[in-house]
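Hey, can you fold this one?
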Amino acid sequence: MSAEWRCIRRNQDECRRYLDQFKVFDHPLKQSTITVLESKGTRMKPVNSIISESNSGSSSTISLDPLSLALDGSDPLSQFARQDSAQDPLSQMAAEFEGALNVSSSGAKSKKKEVSNLLEMDLIEPWAGRRSAILNKYTTNEKLSIVTSFLNGGETIKSQTTMSEKVKHRLEQLDEFEDGTVRQMLDLSQQEYVIKIEQLNHELVQAWNTDQRVKALKIAIQCSKLLADTSVIQFYPSKFVLITDILDIFGKLVYERLLVKSRESIKSGGRGLTALSENFSPDMVPESAKETCQNWFYKIASIRELLPRLYVEMAILKSYRFLTSNEFSSILMRLTQMIRGVGDPLVNIYARCYLCRVGMAITTDRDYIKENLNDVLTIYHTILNGGIRADISKHRISLCGYVSLFLPALDWLMQGVTILSTDAELDDVLKRCRDKKHPALLMQSIMQSFRPDFIALRAVPFVEILSTISVEGLSRGHLLRNLGSILSQTAPPAEQRALVLNAAWRTISAMGNTEEYIQCAEMWAQYTSHHFGLRELNALMGDILYHMTPNRAYEQHYHELQVIADKIVSNAQDIHGVLALDNFLPMLDLFQKESIKLDVCKSILNSYRTACTEAYISDPVVTNALMYISKVLNDSVNALTSEDERRQISNLISHFIRKVDFGRDFEQQLSFYVEARSAFSNLDHVYSTLIHCVNRLATSTRRIVKGQHTNKTAAFVKACAAYCFITIPSIIDVNTRMELYLQSGQVALLNVCLQQADSCFEAALNLIPEIPRTFEQDGKTQSSEPFLKSFLMNFLSTLVIVPDNPTQGVLYLLRLLLEVIKKYPFDSNYETLSSIYLHVLDFLSVAAQEVYPYHIVNVISNDELYGSDPKFLAEIHTISCEVCDELLQILKQLLESNAIRQQSQLALDLFLKIITGADLTVDRMFTLTYNLWNLAVKNRNALDAKQLQKILSYTEHLAEVSQIDSQKQCLQLLLEKMKSRM
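Sure. Predicted structure:
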């Protein structure tokens, strides 16, 4: 044995590190400041600076940061900005230009921009928001065709010499595609059709950019003619979107060309300005630009067919601004009347839609929109007349599918009518629509376009209308579903809510079509859960069970049932009450498909976790319901379940477990935990939660009895300890098991369950050889040694107050610890192992004291148990010598591996432990201590320069405060020798 370690008796203050003390006037995290004097030519006045002025100058306090210091409190850009603006040529030019504008438009900037069209009011959803939805909804698998003459190359432009020849040639070009040069492409798929339309768009832009204006106009005309083709009728709304995109581009090109023409004319006229203002008037436009604009409209007026003439004129409608500023209303009304010549009702309503789209972007007038809606209502009866029905059957499309084709255009018209309309005007529109023969399409558009508050205030009449009207073309279920969606977001008056629900549900419940019924129930479930109590929700679920159970209809509607369950749980005001309803679990049993049931249960527990952040569960019915749902999730976990999925399920179940609280009925609480342990056998995290909860239960019991257990409470806390001890082995992760054993042992010790505590501590130590050397964390491989070191530090702190088991011998648990750590494969640098041994020496030093620094009430620790018995102290000294020898062996191995820095650091650490807790009057210990110091000084270059000086100061401090004369003399002698080596 190399060392002869004998622990000394000492006061706790003796081993405290000596630190210099000095007063601190400012918080160390407070932001530092510096004061920068302003120099001539600078203007540094930061917003948050404290500025003080005096006769000699001014100064400012700014934040101290590296950039500010490096640049005298400013950055280069700020320095440039502080220079006089006269020195910056760009700033000087900008100032001169701004002054010129101020002369010509004094006070114009102070005026608020006036609204020039309806779209600027932000009262209507932009068309761009509807475009994608239309393209996604209206698709087809049928073959399409396209008529064009521009997809396979350009055309030859003839040279013209006189104006009459130029005009004649342009008119010939407009009619050229009627003379046999047109090609028809057949059997195009939808994707190919879209590609061809995009090619036409590209050809139009390319023709325009190469100054082939007539070619661009011809492309616009041919595209417009495509809108007369309804051969693939179900694709017509998407075709309308694609074609009008091209027309919009054409209209924009014409408008911008006229702006450029006006700019060039103004510039050549020498007026000093190079562009028209944003809100220019026709009298500002040069005559040459007006003439060009008129020529465009003359060209369009020469188009022979009505539909292309209408669409192309509507496309460039904005260009009328160059000719007139107060005739837009009459122009829009003229075009509205011209559309009456379009016979096909579908083509007719989309032409009106495009007219209103263009008109809303150029004027605030709404009369033409109302006139368009009036015209639609006038011809509404033709939508479902005999001839149309024959065409529908020929197109192999259902009546409902045909009617839905009108919705995008009709919705746009309806939405335009609602802008700035009074309730009386909307009531008139509603009355006119309701009185039509088959008003379902109109009512659908009204609910889609009218303000939700308008509909909510008239919820009862709306339900009556939808319950009684003829719904040919659209299902009553579809209409009631939309109404339920509106009322879920905007509630009707409180006194009408029950009446609305009863009236609507009578109609919904009487539906013979199961699909229509469940779709309506899906939306009205949200309305019911928002505005009604448990009785109505129970009745709703009962009716759903009544309709879904026969013939296993629920198997076809899992999605709708899932949405209903989610809405009921997430929107209900009393989620505990919902879980206790008679029809809740039977409705949950409708989900026979495992994956669907799993999603539903997960959604319910998610909603419960969100809704119940503070409330606890004490109702056995609610507890059983959540237990059933949680067990479904637990049973879904298997070897193929991903770690993320396992973690989500564990968190949901753990939240439920923590929310169960039976108050002072601790036995029922423990019974619940026993039941939960058997129910959730697949999830380690849930087991950990259960063990934490049981330990908390045992601690709460001790708090209630104030540490003085009766026979009953003592038996109860022992049952809690037994629960933990037999549950922990079921957890797979070794680290988790060790931590739970230690925590459970600490709680058992707190409740004076000494035998149970010993069992937990022993089980934790026996797991050390099983700890894996590495583990995965965030995708990276981590060593387990930091965990082991932290765990043993906690364990040794607890072991201080653990009394020895009389049947196991003195310091049995410590001997077991020293035995098992030898079986763990530590890294070759021995850093963790040496740190553990050093902490063991700390523990032994405390164990040798007459009075331990802390205790647990009613637990007799070793200081009282042994009373400083010489045999006990001799055992401590023996173990200390063994540990010291292990550290010296590590020092030797570090020397052999040439690990100088680690060896020197370990020598210093062991030196500190010896001078703090060992008896230096023993010659062998004094010699060992001095040799350790010599080893550290010898390799001082491998250590921190200040470390040796700090240890020297600490040794001097110990020599001053030591109360044992012999120890003090040894420390003083050692101090002299240490100084001689420095």
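The two ends are 30 Å apart (CA to CA). Let me know if you want another pass with a different chain boundary.
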